[in-house]
Amino acid sequence: SNKFDAGGWGRNWGGNKCQVVFDGVKLDGVDAPGAWSKMGGELSGSILFVNDVTDKNGNAIDVSGKTFNPNGTMASKNYTIMSDMDYLGDWVPPHYDGDILVSDDYTITWNFGKSDSAPDYAVQGSTVDIEGTSANAPASANMILGVDATNGKFSNVNRTDNLAQVNGGTVFTIPVVNGSVITFGDLYGDTTVQIGGTLIKSGNNTYTYYGQSGTVTATVADVKNSYMAYIKVLSPTNPKPFESVNHKINIENAENGKVEASATEAVLGTSVTVTAIPNEGYKLVSLQVAAASGTAITLTDGVFRMPDEDVTVTAVFAVKVTEQPSSIDYEMAFSDNSGTVDGVAIGTSGEYKLFDDFVTLQNFKYDNNHGAAGSGPIVVKVPGKVKITFGTCAYDDVKFVITGENGFSTEIDNVIGNGQSDASGNKGTYQCYGSSNGSVETTYEGEATTLTISFAQATNGAAGNARFWLPYLRIQSIN
Hints:
Shape: flat
Largest sheet: 7 strands, antiparallel
Radius of gyration: 30 Å
Structural class: mainly beta
Helix content: under 10%
Number of strands: 40
């Protein structure tokens, strides 16, 4: 409802006494006050100047820089306060037709790092409850984050930055309501969290909860170098009631293969696994999930989350090439394409076959925007002479070793990024791919063979610091 006090004659309607109460979250025009016609105009010819906006909890909404007044602002009319305005005379103010989005949610944050004023945490083999902070949470909100490190570790005692160590097996119990958006902040390196059947990792670190108000658990995966800065939950003040309605998972018939799903129907937010199985002699070209409304649904490592409507899964298979062409160009831009190469999403660590199975990534995954990572090797069948180009990363400390079934062997040693130090304490010279010194090359000039690309610590690398990210790899034929 919109409420207006009567304004004085010769002044704007309401003047300083004008108060507007919005029950919803959006203002799109207002109703005319009953006495407006006596002032010689209609509200459709007026403007509403926005000075102060608060949500229903009394929290201030920042309206600076907004275009709520598309036909002018107080500043543009040389007005300083509303009581200075006079709507009579030659000037008839134009109509207000903008939108004000009013905050109807709140955020609770649990910081883990000492640089963010977190207390000391040294939890291993036990549990701890952490109270969150919030500027606008209602009094009824649950502010406690449970940390169960019975089978893990949660510690920041040896750090001064914004991170805490969160070893695999650590379980967080997070307070949520229907529609809460959970952010796992600044996941470092390989850090991966499993929540509701979904894997959360750097570059894709949010999860939306659908269900009854209460708590949800998130478990840290058992990976090396696991660190996290914070957990943040953005929740609606008045969440919609959760309705447990099943929606259908339709699978379109595909030629030359089949598709299987882990369920035939599911409720909103459920994680569903989809598997595409090509017939002998065929390969998967594409696998897509679309909602009944036409919206594309994200499929990550063969898993999608059920929307609030039916979905259809579609797969396309094509004949697999069995004879390698005489000229090849296998370009793998892991970083630029967020881990997708030759139509294959490089997800969690495993084996991936690319380019009609002539390239195999073993023990590899897409880590983050630094590129792909893993213990390898990468196995490539080549028809003859090729040039091999490696993209580098500022945090590399690696030696590339290339060997062939025919006895060929070469290496590129001491690829140390300028974000790392070598054994002598000096910074490396290699930068991230795309900048100067961002790539290294070698060639193979023999007959057709299978090459194996392996990764080891740089000879002059710092002790115990062997690691690398591969943002780019290209293997192309040369004359």
